[in-house]
Design brief:
five-stranded antiparallel sheet; elongated; 2 domains; 14 strands; alpha/beta; Argininosuccinate synthetase, chain A, domain 2; 19% strand; 404 residues
Length: 404
C-alpha cells in the first residue's frame, strides 16, 4: 500500500445489497482499514432494519442510517419543481436529485465518526460517480475518495464475479445471477436501466413497473385533485396540509393507480455515453403540471420566460452533479425570486396515464377576467384597442421590405 493511498477509516455509502457488501469487505482487505457503513433513507421502500447487523457481520465497525426523506423532498425535489427542471425535456431527475443529499450526509457522518476517507459503489461509466465526488469535493476536499470500480486492484467485472466474491468470503447477501436490469428508487421515482433494457428497441416488460399501473389497466373513472401552492412550493392536497414527504407519497399513490408518470428515453450521460432509462415518476409528473398551471396566472410573462430559459441549464447542472456549485447557487436564488407570488390552487384530473389541468385560482392572480374578456368595454379597464395599431406598426418596421 503506497503512503499516498493509505487510509485509517473509511465511510462507505452502503445499501446492504450485493455490490456495497462486497465493497465493504474489499476495502478492509485492500486498505487494512476500518469501515463505517452509512445508509440514507430517501424513501427507497426497502427494509432498513437489520442493516446494521448485516454491515457488522461483513466487518464494519459501525453502521449509521440517516432518515433524509423530508429533507430530500423539501430541499431537493421541490426546488427542482419550482425551477421546471426536466433533463433533455423529459427526465424529472429523481436519482440525480438524491445523490448530492446522500453524499452531503455521508460527509457529515464521515466527520462525526473520525473517517479520513469516503467511498461509493458507483461504476466508472455512470453519472453517480460524478455526483458523489463533486459533492465530496465541494463540501469536504480534505477527505480521500475511494471508487473501487475504477481501481486497478478491483478485479470484479460482473455480477457473477460479485456473487463469487461474496461466496468466497461468506459475505451475508441474498443475490442471484438473474437480474435483468438495475433499479434505483426514492420518494421521487424509480429508475430502470442496464441489462435487457440496453436494447433501445425492446419495450419494457409490464411486470417491471412498481409505482404505476399500466394506463390500459387504470380505473375507468378519472379522479380530480386540488393541489395548493405557497411561493411555488406544494403544501396541500384537497385542502389538507401535508408535510413534503407525505404530500409526495400521497400523490405517488393516486397518480400511480391511474397510470401516470412513465417515461422511456435514451439520454446523454455526463461522461459522454448514451443510456436508455425507464422511469416512473407519478407524483412528480402531477406536480410539474400543476406548478406550471399555477405559474400561468401568477408569474409575470417576462419573468416566466427568463426562468424557462434557465430551466434546461438548471436541469443540466442537477443531472451533472453540480448541486453545490457557485453557478447553481446563483441560479437557485434567481428561481426562488421568481416564485414569490406563485401561490394558490390548481385542480388536476388524472385518467388513464394522462394529467389534465381543469382549473387554477390565486389570491394574487395576474389574470384579469374583465380585461381579458372580448365582450366587456375595454377603456374602463385600461386597454384601448386602438393602441394596438401603433404597436403593430412598430413591431413590423423591421419586416417591411426596403424601398428600392
Amino acid at each position: 500500500m503506497s503512503p499516498r493511498r493509505a487510509v485509517k477509516r473509511v465511510c462507505l455509502a452502503y445499501s446492504g445489497g450485493l455490490d456495497t457488501s462486497v465493497i465493504l469487505h474489499w476495502l478492509i482487505d485492500q486498505y487494512d482499514c476500518e469501515v463505517v457503513a452509512y445508509a440514507a433513507d430517501v424513501g427507497q421502500a426497502e427494509e432498513l432494519s437489520g442493516l446494521s447487523e448485516k454491515a457488522k457481520a461483513t466487518g464494519a465497525v459501525d453502521c449509521i442510517v440517516r432518515d433524509l426523506r423530508e429533507e430530500f423532498v423539501s430541499d431537493y425535489v421541490f426546488p427542482a419543481i419550482r425551477g421546471a427542471a426536466l433533463y433533455e425535456g423529459t427526465y424529472m431527475l429523481g436519482t440525480a436529485l438524491a445523490r448530492p443529499l446522500i453524499a452531503k450526509a455521508q460527509v457529515e457522518v464521515a466527520r462525526e465518526t473520525g473517517c479520513d476517507a469516503v467511498a461509493h459503489g458507483a461504476t466508472g461509466k455512470g453519472n453517480d460517480q460524478v455526483r458523489f465526488e463533486l459533492t465530496y469535493r465541494a463540501l469536504a476536499p480534505e477527505l480521500k475518495v475511494i471508487a473501487p470500480w475504477r481501481e486497478e486492484a478491483w478485479e470484479i467485472r460482473s455480477r457473477p464475479d460479485c456473487i463469487a466474491y461474496a461466496e468466497k468470503y461468506a459475505i451475508p447477501v441474498t443475490a442471484t445471477l438473474e437480474k435483468p436490469y438495475s433499479t434505483d428508487r426514492n420518494l421521487m421515482h424509480i429508475s430502470f436501466e442496464g441489462g435487457i433494457l440496453e436494447d433501445p428497441w425492446r419495450a419494457p416488460d409490464e411486470s417491471m413497473f412498481v409505482m404505476s399501473e399500466s394506463p390500459e389497466a387504470a380505473p375507468d373513472v378519472p379522479v380530480e385533485l386540488v393541489i395548493g401552492f405557497e411561493r411555488g412550493t406544494p403544501v396541500s392536497v384537497d385542502g389538507e396540509r401535508l408535510g413534503p414527504a407525505d404530500l409526495l407519497a400521497h400523490l405517488n399513490q393516486v397518480a400511480g393507480v391511474h397510470g401516470v408518470g412513465r417515461v422511456d428515453m435514451v439520454e446523454n450521460r455526463f461522461v459522454g455515453l448514451k443510456s436508455r432509462g425507464v422511469y416512473e415518476t407519478p407524483g412528480g409528473t402531477l406536480l410539474h403540471a400543476a406548478h406550471r398551471a399555477m405559474e400561468s396566472i401568477t408569474l409575470d410573462r417576462d419573468v416566466m420566460h427568463e426562468r424557462d430559459r434557465m430551466a434546461p441549464r438548471f436541469a443540466e447542472l442537477i443531472y451533472n452533479g453540480f448541486w453545490f456549485s457557485p453557478e447553481m447557487k446563483m441560479m437557485r436564488a434567481a428561481i426562488e425570486a421568481s416564485q414569490e407570488n406563485v401561490t394558490g390552487e390548481v385542480r388536476v384530473r388524472v385518467y388513464k396515464g394522462g394529467v389534465t389541468v381543469t382549473g387554477r385560482r390565486s389570491p394574487v392572480s395576474l389574470y384579469d377576467e374583465a380585461l381579458a374578456s372580448f365582450d366587456d368595454a375595454d377603456e374602463e379597464h385600461g386597454y384601448d384597442q386602438a393602441d394596438a395599431t401603433g404597436f403593430i406598426r412598430l413591431q413590423g418596421l423591421r419586416l417591411t421590405p426596403p424601398r428600392r
